[in-house]
Amino acid sequence: QVQLIESGGGLVQAGGSLRLSCTIPGRTFSSYAMGWFRQAPGKEREFVAAITYSGRSTYYADSVKGRFTISRDNPKSTAYLQMNSLKPEDTGVYYCAAMVGGSAYSTPSAYSYWGQGTQVTVSS
Length: 124
Hints:
Layout: E1 5-7, E2 10-13, E3 18-23, E4 33-39, E5 46-51, E6 58-60, E7 68-73, E8 78-83, E9 92-99, E10 113-114, E11 118-123
Parallel strand pairs: 2-11
Antiparallel strand pairs: 1-3, 3-8, 4-5, 4-9, 5-6, 7-8, 9-10, 9-11
């Protein structure tokens, strides 16, 4: 069973920063492309960012470009989402996800494994 463990959510004022982490213990981390998704109350889960298996390429939703940065440290089996200049509309539950094979990085159904989610709340 592949387990994704997330951390780093919380409450922050608009304009502030948070860093989310996602680790997959006991697995060859480079076997997974990693993605971050979020879901606000009453809305569908949406793509935020993704990073390829090697980390050479990254992808972002238009709404977070220039503010969020996804990265990974394969020896530490951890992916990160650095979120700067946060806005109230960034509020939601953030999920990390792991993909095995494929490249449909913005498609939730392309990911095989999901974390439990971590709450991010941005106050105005």
